[in-house]
Design brief:
This is Cc8L18.2-like protein. It comes from Daphnia magna. It is elongated and about 75 Å long. Helix 3 crosses helix 4. Helix content is 58%, strand content 0%. With 138 residues, it is mostly helical. The longest helix has 34 residues.
Length: 138
């Protein structure tokens, strides 16, 4: 929005542009601070990062990466708990080790968010290639 206020080609309608920009800022500025709304907009392939100001770009990408990481950890813990339940019936319980739950993430998993943002396709079917982003979007 700041681009429009500093655009030198707008001569005759400048007061109108300022009035519209100020109205949008006044009405919607509180929404730009809500992390849930930011995540919803970023996970929509039609919007991604189009609406994000340049100075907030890294913070918003980090926000979505954090949500994706927590979602993956949650789904991994559910899978590991079900594997433990299946193994409980087969053999005696092992004493848990301190680092048993720690797993080095595959770089491909970490880069899912970056790949999602790098893809220029804005169609909703894009989410089929990025399952974590799809779960966030739903």
């Amino acid at each position: 929005m700041k681009k429009f206020s500093s655009d030198n080609t707008i001569i005759h309608c400048q007061p109108l542009v300022y009035a519209v920009l100020n109205g949008i800022e006044k009405r919607f500025s509180h929404m730009m601070q809500d992390n849930k709304l930011k995540i919803a907009a970023m996970s929509d392939p039609h919007f991604k990062l189009v609406w994000v100001e340049q100075e907030d770009l890294n913070d918003n990408i980090t926000l979505l990466k954090g949500v994706a990481r927590r979602l993956k950890l949650k789904s991994n813990s559910i899978v590991s708990e079900s594997v433990i339940e299946v193994n409980d019936n087969a053999s005696p319980k092992k004493k848990p080790r301190f680092l048993d739950g720690y797993r080095i993430n595959n770089p491909l998993e970490i880069d899912e968010v970056d790949s999602y943002f790098a893809d220029v396709n804005g169609d909703i079917t894009l989410l089929n290639r990025f399952p974590t982003i799809k779960r966030i979007f739903q």
